[in-house]
Amino acid sequence: MTSRMTHGAGSVPERRYRTSGWLTFAGTLSLVVGAFNIIDGLVALFRDNYYLVGENRILVFDYTAWGWIWLILGIVQIAVGAGILSGKLWARAVGVFFAVVAAIGHLAFLQAFPLWSVLTIAMCVLLIYALTAPPAGSTGR
């Protein structure tokens, strides 16, 4: 019997990461929340009369300003979701921050479209938990 020898196989330690289903879930949920925010933004930009509020103002801004806010926030959340799914640590921290920002924004938007806002706030809270619950050093792969 002959044994095959590989040169250098033992010299480089293999890095093992703990995988976490929560991070895979968080990345996917970030993509969904980002898509919801993009839809909110596009609707606010192109169909002002879609929302329940009679005036063209929600709390502070008009629908056009909210449209741009949701559109930009949604694009960032989709990028963060892709970062989470690829195992980037920075994406976890940024994901928590933007989930909090989106939840607060949907509180302000609650008067305009209550059901959609409550659903998105619930998903943001679940996203925050999914990003903070996994053990340190784990990835979503």
From TrEMBL:
Keyword Membrane annotated: yes
InterPro entries from the UniProt entry: DUF7144 (IPR055568)
Residues folding into a coiled coil are: none
Chain ranges of the DUF7144 domain = 22-134
Alphabetical UniProt keywords: Membrane, Transmembrane, Transmembrane helix
Instruction: Supply the Pfam families for this chain.
Output: DUF7144 (PF23636)
Q: TM segments?
A: 21-45, 65-82, 89-109, 115-132
Q: What is this protein called?
A: DUF7144 domain-containing protein
- Organism per entry: Actinomadura syzygii
